């Protein structure tokens, strides 16, 4: 299913909440998020596509994108900040650790994705459409 972000009305895009990403790659102006097998065991997927085995999200990029990871400082206590992360570090993080898709915000030619891996990871993307490819 394809969702266009460059129309007058923004789409309601389903969120694979808490689903684990097993691979992230960049190919031909697409940021590709591949999710783990047996994705239908998650509550968020059971209502969207109950027979799905896996999901691939392809985001067609129209500009550069930014990645930020929240870092907590020890002093002063409870102060939080975001530091920029590059794609290679995010790819290696996905291969080493459990990275979950939490939620996203949709706007005109913009998508902000929040991931979680011990701390929040924000993807600030400029895109014109998104493809959800369900594997049955």
Structural descriptors:
136 residues; globular; single chain; ten-stranded antiparallel β-sheet; 2 helices; mainly beta
What are the SSEs and their pairings?
Blueprint: E1 2-4, E2 19-27, E3 30-35, H1 43-46, E4 54-61, E5 66-72, E6 80-85, H2 87-96, E7 99-107, E8 110-116, E9 120-125, E10 127-135
Antiparallel strand pairs: 1-10, 2-3, 2-7, 3-4, 4-10, 5-6, 5-9, 7-8, 8-9
Q: Count the helices. How many?
A: 2
Let me know the average pLDDT: 90
Query: What would you call the structural class?
Result: mainly beta
Form type: globular
Question: Unreliable segments (pLDDT under 50, ≥5 consecutive)?
Answer: none
E-strand count: 10
- Can you summarize the main beta sheet? 10 strands, antiparallel
Strand content: over 45%
Radius of gyration: 15 Å
Strand order of the largest sheet: 1-10-4-3-2-7-8-9-5-6
**What percent of residues adopt helix (DSSP H or I)?**
10-25%
**Termini separation (Å)?**
14 Å
Helices and strands, in order, run as EEEHEEEHEEEE
Describe the structure.
This protein is 10% helix and 51% strand. By secondary structure, the chain is mainly beta. Strands 1-10-4-3-2-7-8-9-5-6 form a ten-stranded antiparallel sheet, covered by helices on one side. A hairpin with a 2-residue loop joins strand 7 and strand 8.
Task: Briefly say what this structure is.
The protein has 136 residues and is mainly beta.
């Amino acid at each position: 299913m394809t969702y266009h972000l460059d129309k007058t009305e923004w789409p309601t895009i389903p969120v694979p909440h808490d689903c684990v990403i097993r691979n992230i790659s960049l190919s031909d102006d697409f940021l590709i998020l591949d999710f783990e097998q047996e994705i239908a065991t998650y509550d968020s997927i059971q209502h969207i596509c109950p027979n799905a085995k896996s999901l691939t999200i392809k985001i067609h990029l129209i500009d550069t994108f930014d990645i930020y990871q929240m870092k907590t400082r020890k002093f002063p206590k409870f102060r939080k900040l975001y530091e920029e992360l590059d794609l290679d570090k995010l790819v290696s993080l996905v291969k080493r650790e459990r990275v979950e898709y939490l939620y996203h915000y949709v706007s005109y030619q913009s998508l902000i994705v929040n991931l979680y891996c011990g701390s929040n990871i924000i993807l600030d993307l400029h895109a014109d459409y998104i493809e959800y490819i369900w594997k049955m």
